[in-house]
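Backbone-to-sequence.
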């Protein structure tokens, strides 16, 4: 065995290392038993299962990966070279040199693990919070098995699922009999390095990953805990064993999406409609920043429509603005699904939102002026529009400062940090799009100008009051 292929890493405690097995399931079955089975390159929302697993682990805080790989090594390397960047070290260990049923393989791997190791197959998609919880839950000498309730699976798999018996959170036994237990083991297991070092004592079977045997032996001493995905809705795992499971996995990923700042309309309307557009944008390969610009263009067209000043143009413009709000949800959704978030993308999204808002305020002001042209109060809409644009511009400036203070953790007091978070959540809300549509239907868009001008100026003043002490000390 070529042990020189394993490079020494700094002493790392806790759970920071993962071993991936793309060629087999965690409990020994080949990854593809049938022609219709999903493999490590099967695409789920634009990324292969292997690539998505690596990026999820990377985002969750895993700092090094070891891949026990079979004949698909070259294909998997090419897959990682495309799309979102993998920044953690990945070491490829061919099974022909590191057999799964050789105790020396696991002893060599154990020597590289400082504390705990996550063993994972790639026949499923799972959430970052699930992996983060595993990192927090590790205890000395204890293994962890991630399990899910049988009813969580959307369809009956052809393979026999390994079920676990649990008592007070501890593993009692593992069985393939369907009537023995209600929880099903997933392809996620956390092992202490000491368990892998004793691989030779577990009675290895030819061609089989010895994980089940390790767990059964450790369970006798009560050293295996079971983490059920039932305990927390954000700790989800969706198996993808067959091609037909891909749709269920994509639905689970889409359902898990949620923006940092969402209002009532976003949560119950925009996000639901945006899923259709998100699928379209993913299929077309558009980047999140390109989607941001599409939303911006639609929003500015809406602003031009308001500037015409007619009743019908106002309604069409309000509907276009609602469409822009829906599309604006998609850039973040695509970014999270494809792991392409960036600080610039986040800034561009907020900046373009404010450009659109200021364009909307200006368009409504011009349209209202045209309707009142020649009357004594014709100047009022223009003044209100100017106030709304000024307040919006100041708000954007103060929000940018607040985000810089937050990222640098320079809030002077926890109270100021809490107020800033509350203000940021409210400034990002697009709930006013429905109010604008209502005013357009009523033919009272000039009323909206009063609300926008007073609201934006008041918000900028409140934001200044919140950030001023921390901004002064951070300069």
């Amino acid at each position: 065995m070529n042990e020189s292929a394993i490079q020494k890493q700094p002493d790392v405690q806790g759970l920071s290392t993962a071993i991936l097995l793309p060629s087999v399931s965690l409990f020994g079955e080949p990854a593809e038993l049938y022609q219709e089975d999903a493999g490590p390159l099967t695409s789920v929302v634009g990324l292969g299962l292997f690539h998505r697993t690596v990026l999820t682990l990377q985002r969750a805080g895993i700092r090094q990966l070891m891949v026990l790989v079979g004949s698909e090594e070259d294909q998997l390397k090419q897959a990682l070279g495309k799309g979102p960047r993998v920044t953690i070290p990945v070491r490829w260990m061919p099974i022909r040199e590191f057999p799964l049923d050789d105790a020396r393989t696991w002893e060599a791997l154990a020597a590289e693990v400082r504390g705990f190791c996550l063993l994972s197959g790639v026949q499923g998609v799972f959430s970052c919070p699930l992996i983060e919880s595993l990192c927090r839950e590790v205890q000395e000498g204890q293994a962890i098995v991630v399990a899910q309730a049988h009813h969580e699976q959307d369809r009956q798999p052809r393979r026999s699922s390994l079920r676990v018996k649990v008592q007070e959170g501890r593993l009692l036994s593992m069985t393939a009999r369907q009537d023995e237990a209600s929880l099903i083991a997933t392809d996620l297991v956390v092992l202490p390095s000491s368990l892998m070092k004793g691989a030779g004592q577990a009675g290895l079977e030819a061609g089989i990953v010895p994980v089940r045997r390790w767990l059964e032996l450790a369970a006798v001493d009560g050293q295996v805990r079971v983490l059920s995905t039932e305990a927390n809705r954000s700790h989800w795992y969706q198996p993808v064993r067959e091609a037909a499971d891909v749709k269920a996995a994509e639905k689970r990923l889409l359902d898990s999406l949620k923006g940092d700042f969402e209002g009532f309309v976003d949560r119950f309307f925009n996000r639901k409609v945006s899923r259709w557009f998100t699928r379209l944008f993913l299929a077309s390969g558009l980047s999140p920043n390109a989607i941001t610009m599409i939303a911006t263009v639609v929003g500015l067209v809406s602003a031009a429509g308001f500037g015409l000043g007619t009743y019908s143009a106002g309604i069409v413009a309000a509907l276009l603005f609602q469409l822009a709000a829906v599309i604006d949800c998609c850039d973040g959704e695509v970014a999270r699904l494809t792991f392409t978030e960036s600080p610039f993308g986040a800034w561009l999204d907020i900046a373009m939102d404010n450009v659109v808002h200021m364009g909307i305020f200006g368009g409504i002001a011009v349209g209202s002026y045209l309707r009142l042209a020649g009357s004594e109060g014709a100047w009022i809409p223009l003044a209100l529009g100017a106030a709304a644009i000024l307040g919006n511009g100041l708000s954007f400036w103060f929000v940018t400062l607040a985000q810089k203070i937050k990222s640098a953790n320079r809030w002077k007091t926890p109270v100021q940090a809490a107020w800033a978070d509350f203000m940021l959540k409210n400034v990002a809300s697009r709930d006013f799009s429905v109010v604008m549509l209502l005013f357009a239907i009523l033919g009272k868009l000039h009323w909206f100008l009063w609300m926008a001008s007073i609201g934006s100026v008041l918000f900028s003043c409140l934001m200044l009051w919140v950030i001023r002490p921390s901004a002064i000390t951070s300069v």
